Here is the input.
Amino acid sequence: MAGQFIDAEVWPEGSLEVLSQFEVDQLQNSGTGGLYPLLRRCMLAVLNSGSESDDARELFETYSDFEVGFIRQDRGLKVTLRNAPGEAFVDGKMIRGTRELLSAVLRDIVFTRNEVLDSGRFDLTASDGITNAVFHILRNAQLMKLPARVNLVVCWGGHAISREEYDYSKKVGYELGLRGLNVCTGCGPGAMKGPMKGATIGHAKQRIRDGRYVGITEPGIIAAESPNPIVNSLVIMPDMEKRLESFVRVGHGIIVFPGGVGT
Here is the structure.
């Protein structure tokens, strides 16, 4: 399906099958206070999962006619997509992992706007208020659960690294996987993908079937760093500041690979 445009109707996978009419109206609103531009940007990035390009402008130009809509039905809510990237489909059906990531987009956008940014419950000008907001977003995404498994290693690094650096990050991920450790990265390519790819092999050798490959991103960079195809748990934080704090809050260890200024 590469290079093709697909029209489709899909059920959310795993969460947020039901939205209130107010929430649907928010998601469809392109005006001031509406969530549609943010929803469209994040969903297009997810549908472009696995792309090696970091050119957000090219992505938006290629899929300038991409649209998202909703259909209410007795069993819940369907998402409609027009002119979506064909790479997200196999034999006319959306790849299941992509459906799960689309659900994560809906979950985080709706929760962050209504329960964090607009609720008045959090003082986002104060350090403790920001930390509290980060905790609630992560808990809603089910990254904060009891009993806690102390096995998530955060791997920081850039998307534009050399082949030698990528292979090294993959080897480190492999060693983590052999030891039953899971991986959390910024969810994009390069040093964000390498540790996850290595960990999948380590997990396979140890017959670990519930490995976690957590990607944490934010709307400002998700189009340039679309989730790599290994991510099976996606969280979209509202901005870079809260994204960086999220890594520190969820990780039980941190490894830093080569990267740019953000790393």
Q: What stands out?
A: The CA atoms of residues 18 and 76 lie 5 Å apart. Strands lie at 5-10, 67-73, 76-85, 89-90, 93-94, 152-156, 182-185, 213-217, 233-236, 253-256. The mean pLDDT is 88. The longest strand covers residues 76-85.
